[in-house]
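Problem: given the chain below (262 residues), write out its structure.
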Amino acid sequence: MQHVKYDLGQVKRGSTVVVTLDKQANVQLMDSSNYSNYTRGRQYRYVGGLMRKSPASIPVPRDGHWYVAIDLGGGSGRVRSGVNVQPPPRGNLPTYREPGTQPLRDVLDVRVPQRPADPDVLDGRTWDVFISHASEDKPAVAIPLAEALQARGVTAWLDKAELRIGESLRRRIDQGLAASRFAVVVLSPSYFAKGWPQYELDGIVSLSIAGKQNLLPIWHEVSYSDVMAESPSLADKLARSTTDTGIEAIADEIAELVLASR
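Solution.
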């Protein structure tokens, strides 16, 4: 694919690649082997994605030789761009795990669901999967995921799981997680725009059993730096991103995990 290439050379983990653009474009940070696959039309992995705002910042996940490729996704025209690398900040750095790099079964766990005492909470019954999302993400992510799970024999709570301004994120997820074997949170620009306090987002990470997550963040149209800005501890959790993993594939992994726990 026609693209603008930046050879960054050796870059340390925790550095930040800052990209300036004159229009929206695909910005992909790749190591040497993945950049080679990218130029040859093979399957590859990257950090980044569609950047609508400039400047865009991408954290470097590990030491190595890195490249930045900027393209218009096959569209016509040219993009003016610039790239610079900022060194890692001093002090301890959070651990970064690229979405999709680890099997869910190796990291995630499930709960034994408990029927809610209040019949108005989740219809007073237990569910396999609770999906927390902003209403704006219902057509693109929440509904397709719920339908894909149901087609695999997994019950998914959806209709009343969307969060509105003024509601307590932590309380809602607590309720959904208690009454479900597993929970999914769709993190997106719309989700973060609801104005959830950071302490509520950080509180999600305490919802774990025996050191394993029982909540899967799905990143939709957000990057690691976006999640990091809202909740550093949540950014460290194993996640799946709709940028590089399809809804059907995500449903397959969740179904495998949940059905094995019944």
